[in-house]
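Saturday, quiet lab. Running sequence design on the structure tokens for the scaffold JK sent over.
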């Protein structure tokens, strides 16, 4: 931590309760974890009491994504923890590029060992179609943190964007399906 940061924050706390006597928040361009996990990390790092540094006082790069929550499928970049965060935000049909690649089989990424041991893709509650299929396409790509596997994440994301939400739905030399809107892409920490 920055020298003197912990002392400065302690001056903002009520000495009897350890709760903030003056309001403050922690803002970071980091992500990939929940606000609760980051709050605990900051409390431990700065030696603050449990009443200081609550999840409500933490704003991560992807915290604003909460306002985008949808039940439509979204592709989440940033690893397993980011996928859990997206689901906690209300993205009930969130999927990772590794899940998409595993569902597509070894032909999807022929130069990489297959992804194994992953949960299946979310399915449409009405039809049972998997996320990223023509009848249940991805509506958005959320870049919440650094990719878990650059190769897989970039390839699957490009396939989803080129296929207008359908994973592997477009092939070079063919016309992409223009009847579907392109998925929107949201970056939480563009650095």
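Result came back. Writing it out in full:
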């Amino acid at each position: 931590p920055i020298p003197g940061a912990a002392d400065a924050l302690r001056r903002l706390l009520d000495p009897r309760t350890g709760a903030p006597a003056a309001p403050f928040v922690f803002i970071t361009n980091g992500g990939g974890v929940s606000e609760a996990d980051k709050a605990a990390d900051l409390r431990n790092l700065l030696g603050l009491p449990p009443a200081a540094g609550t999840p409500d006082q933490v704003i991560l790069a992807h915290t604003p994504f909460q306002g985008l929550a949808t039940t439509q499928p979204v592709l989440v970049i940033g690893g397993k923890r980011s996928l859990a965060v997206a689901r906690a935000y209300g993205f009930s049909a969130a999927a990772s590029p590794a899940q998409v690649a595993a569902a597509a089989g070894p032909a999807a990424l022929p130069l990489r060992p297959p992804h194994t041991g992953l949960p299946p893709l979310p399915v449409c509650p009405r039809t049972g179609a998997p996320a990223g299929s023509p009848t249940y396409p991805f509506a958005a790509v959320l870049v919440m943190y650094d990719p878990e596997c650059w190769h897989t994440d970039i390839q699957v994301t490009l396939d989803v964007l080129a296929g207008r939400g359908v994973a592997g739905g477009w092939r070079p030399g063919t016309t992409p399906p223009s009847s579907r809107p392109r998925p929107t892409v949201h970056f939480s920490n563009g650095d």
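Notes for JK: The chain has a mean pLDDT of 89. The longest helix spans residues 150-162. Ask whether to fix the surface positions before the next round.
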